[in-house]
Amino acid sequence: MASSKETGEGQMNAVNNTMYIPLYGRSLVSRKGIILKDSKAEEIWRKELFPLKGKSKSKWLAYYMAMRARVFDDRIRQKLLECPSSLVLHIGCGMDSRVLRINSAGCMWIDVDFPQVISERRKYYAENKNYKMLDADVSNPDWILQLPDSGCAIVILEGISMYLTNFQVAHLFRALDSKYNHLHILMDVYTEFGAKASKYKSPINDVGITNVYGIDSPEEVLDNSGIMFLKEHDMTPEHLVRELKGFERVFFRIMFAGRVAKKIYRLYEYKKNAENKGL
User: Fold this and answer.
1) What is the pLDDT along the chain (279 residues), one digit of tens a residue?
2) For the chain, what is the domain count?
3) Strand order across the beta sheet in which 183-190 lies
4) Structural domain span for residue 110
5) Cα 94-95-96 angle, rounded to 5 deg
6) With contact defined as beta carbons under 8 Å apart, do 109 and 131 qualify?
7) CA-based nearest residue to 234, from 274, 186, 183
8) CB within 8 A of 126, min separation 6: which ones?
9) Which has the closest alpha carbon to 70: 161, 155, 186, 185?
10) CATH code for position 76
């Protein structure tokens, strides 16, 4: 989600199209009855039928996208149990129905993405007093100053950091740091190796993405902010891999889980003053 000046309008439009890759993955596994249930993804996919091709419509990628979504869901759900009055900020939401999959009653939830994406999203989601949609250029986080105050903010950055330069991620973190005293952040990243490899063999190439960015060290985007790196999580935990059957389970475990996956893709968890708010 880099700026249009840096990537060009074609790249910007292509970034918007990437939202259909995880949508397809969630829809596929939901229909199969494994990993996660997402009836909203099924509904939207039936109506949109975006013409994915090549690797972007691989069942293996679908399984991976769904596991990633499930890991995010489980972590956010746990944090809401610990701090139910949090503001949840899902940056780069695409068509994700996480707000419906998670019991978020009692908290304020804001889904954020580019104007074109939010326009599409409004066809399928309705705002209410606890749920809002916000269109913004994520690469320029000045809009964060206009967000509501909260004693605790939970920030979801799923499938977005790779479209921002490290400077832009650090700028986003500084803006969040300035706005909220207590933060919990989950962010998946390409490694630098993964970013380089994606130029030659990646599903996002199939929707027109030609340039992405990697982060090897979770600390390199903190830039002396009050936010601290907490831990790294497995995006393909064994209990989810076991939901696959037979050959699919064996093949996925070898090719897409464990050390192989970590060379390319990682999930980082951050906090700010978490110990004071039970995060």
Assistant:
1) 333 333 344 333 444 567 888 999 999 999 999 999 999 999 999 998 877 766 677 899 999 999 999 999 999 999 999 888 999 999 999 999 999 999 777 899 999 999 999 999 999 999 999 999 999 998 889 999 889 999 999 999 999 998 899 999 999 999 999 999 999 999 999 999 888 877 665 544 444 455 788 999 999 999 878 999 999 999 999 999 999 999 999 999 998 897 878 888 899 999 997 454 344
2) 1
3) 131-135, 108-113, 87-91, 153-157, 183-190, 265-272, 228-233
4) 4-276
5) 95
6) yes
7) 186
8) none
9) 186
10) 3.40.50.150
Q: Which residue reads 């580019």 in tokens?
A: 114
**What is the SS3 assignment for the chain?**
CCCHHHHCHHHHHHHHHCCHHHHHHHHHHHHHCCCCCCHHHHHHHHHHCCCCCHHHHCHHHHHHHHHHHHHHHHHHHHHHHHCCCCEEEEECCCCCCHHHHCCCCCCEEEEEECHHHHHHHCCCCCCECCEEEEECCCCCHHHHHHCCCCCCEEEEECCCHHHCCHHHHHHHHHHHHHHCCCEEEEEEEECHHHHHHHCCCCHHHHHCCCCCCECCCHHHHCCCCCCEEEEEECCCCHHHHCCCCHHHHHHHHHHHCHHHHHCCEEEEEEEECHHHCCC
What angle in degrees, to the nearest 10, is found between the helix axes of 20-32 and 39-48? Answer: 120
